[in-house]
Amino acid sequence: MTKIEVVDPPPQPSVLQDWKTEVKDTPCHVFNKRFSPLIGMPQVQCLTNSVVQSSLPKSVLDCATKITEEEDKKVKEAIFHAHLLDSFQAKLPKVINMDRPGWNERREYGIPFGRKHKTLTYQLLLLLDQQVPGALERQLVEDTLTQVTLKHSDSLMQINHEAAFIVSSLTPLPQLADNAEIKSLQEETLPDIYPLSPLVNCRAFNTYCLKDSYGVASNNLYPHTIFIHQNQSRMKLSEDQFAGISLLHAFSHAAAYAKATGSIVGSNLEKPVVLQVVHMHRQYFHMGVFQLNTLNLTGTTKNIFWTQPWEPLFSKCCFQAAQPVLEGYNPRVFELLKGLHAQC
Amino acid sequence: MGSMKVMGVLCREFRAVTLASRSLLPTTVCARDALQQVRGLNISHINRPAPGDHKNYRYKVHYPEDGQYTIKHLKTTKLGGRDPETGRIIVGTLGGGAKRNYRWIDWFRYGPTDGTFLEERVIGILYDPNRTARIALVASGINMRYIVATENMKKGDLIRTSSYIPRITVRPKEGDAYPVGALPVSTLINCVENRPGDGARLIKAAGTAGVILRKMSDKVVVQLPTKREVALDPQCMVTVGRVSNIDHGKKHVGSAQRRRWLGRRPASGWWQRKDGYCGRKIRPLPPIKTYAPLQPKVPIMTLTLDNEGPPRPVIPSTDRVT
After folding, report:
1. Alpha-carbon distance A197 to nearest alpha carbon in chain B (angstroms)
2. B121: closest chain A residue by CA
3. Which of A52, A53, A314, B251 is 20 to 30 A off residue A59, Cα-Cα?
4. Torsion angle, alpha carbons of A71, A77, A83, A85, to 10
C-alpha cells in the first residue's frame, strides 16, 4: 500500500495571523475596497489633501509613443486570451436584467472577472517589459494587502486596501513636482463639499487593528505602479467616483510606504514618494500618477495627482457565430501604459 | 427582596403575591393608575387589535441589534394582517406581494434652538416601496439619513432645520423644517408632529399638504388634508411644502394581479356605489382636536394571584375575519 501524505493547502493570501482586531476606546473610520465616495473626486481630494491636475505628466505623455502594427496585434491577442480563449470554467455571478424583474436568467459558466483582469494585466506587463529597457529588473507582487492609519482633523482614519499587482523597482521614481511647485500649490484651495465631511459614507467603528503595513515587505524596493482591479460584473460607480477611488488607492499605498520606510519630519516627507496607479474594470482603464508630499491631511502643503479621464480598451469582446470578435479597439491605452512603464 | 416590603405595605390582604415588574426600584412609590387589576371572569371590554387602529399588520422590521440608526436597507418579515404578539389575523385583506426592504426614515427633524441652522445636502431622491412618497437621502457632516422628500426637492439642494421660534415669522422655503410657530399663516406643510418631541406623525402621504390656518396665543391651528383642524403646540416641528410624488393619487392600480403584487388580498365585492348607504356624507366638521403633551411612561406593575382565579387561562373571544 502506498503511503498518502496529506498536505494542508497553502494559506490564503488575505489572512494575516497577527492582525487581530480589538475593541478600542476611540472610534476609527475604516476605508476598505467597498467604500465609494458619496460625491466622487472632491470628497477624496478633501480626504487626502490633494490637488488634481487634468492630464498625465509630460514625462509620461512623451514616452507614450505610437505602437507598431506587430505590437498592436500582440495586444489584441492578449485581450482575446484574457477574455475569450481561456478554458477555465467557473460559475459566474447571477445576471440581473432590470427590464425583466423577478426573471431568473440561466446561470452561465465562464471566466470570472478577477481572472480576466489578472490574465490581461499580466500579458500586458510581459509585452511592456519587452518594450522598455531595464524593466526586467523590476519585481512583481500579486494580491497584496496595505493598511495605513492616519489622523484627519480630530478623527482617526484607517485605509485598508488590496492591490492586484504591485510593480516595484530598485530605483525610486523621480520627483515630478519640485519644491517650488509644491510651495506654489499651497495657496490652492480644495473643493468645497459643505455641509459634508470628507469622512461621510464611512462609519466609525471601535473594533479595528492598529497595524500599518505596505504590500511589499522589502526595504530595497521602491513602489513603481499599482494595479487595482474591480472584479464585479456590474459596477455602481460613476466615472467621478471611479477616479476618486484610484486616488484613494494611490494615497494609501504611498502613505503606507512612507510610514514604513521614509523619513517624516513633522508630517511632511523629506523626499516625496511618487507612484503610478492603473485602475481597471472590464475594458475601462483609469491611469494616474501620484506624488505624496505630506501626511498632514488638513495642512497647507498639498499632495498632487495627475490623471486623465478613463479610456476604454475596447467596446465589445465576445464570441459571435463561434468566432472571437473585438470591436472598438483603442490603441491609446497601451501607449499610455507604455508611457507609465517607461518611467524610472 | 426589597420590593416585597413595598408590596406588603400596599397589598396586605393578599396572601401569595407574585411581583412582575422590571422597572421598579425598592424605593419607588407606585402611582395608583399603574396597577392593572384583572378581576373575575366577567371581562366586558378588552383592548384588542382591530383593523382601524393605525398599527402595522403588514410587516415586522428587523432593526439592528445595537439600535443605531443606519441607512442600510433592513430586512422585514411579512405578517399577512396578523398581530405580531397573538398571531391572529386582524386585517384579512393583507397578505402576499413582493418582498420589501425597509428604509429607516428619520422622523425627528430637529435643529439648533439658538437661531443658527442645521444645513444638509440632498444626495439623491430614492424610491421607497413602503410608502407612497419618495424619500430623500440627505447628509450633513458624517451623518446620513432618509427623510420624506418634498415636491420640488432635487439632488444637490441644501435644506435647513431649525428649532428656534423668532419674533417675526421665517420666510418658508420648501424642504426646510421649522417649528410650526415660526412659520407664517397659510404655509403648506407636511410631516407634522402632534406633540413636541414625538416625531412626525401627520401628513406623510404622497402629494398631501396641510395648511396653517390661524395662530392663537398658545396654539397653532393646522388644517389636515381631510379638512379636519388640529391645534398644535407652536414647538411642533413641520416641513415646508407638499409631499413628493403628487401624481400618485391619479394613478390606477390597473389590475387585480397588480393589487396582489402590492400585498392586498381580494376584498368583499359588497360595496355598492349609488344606493346612498356608502355614499358621501355631508356633515359639519368635528371639533378642533388638541393633543395633550407627551407623558413620561409610568412603569406598569402587574400583580397576580396564585391561589385564586380560574383553573385554566381564559382566552377572550375575538372576531376572526376569514
Report:
1. 4
2. A195
3. A314
4. -160
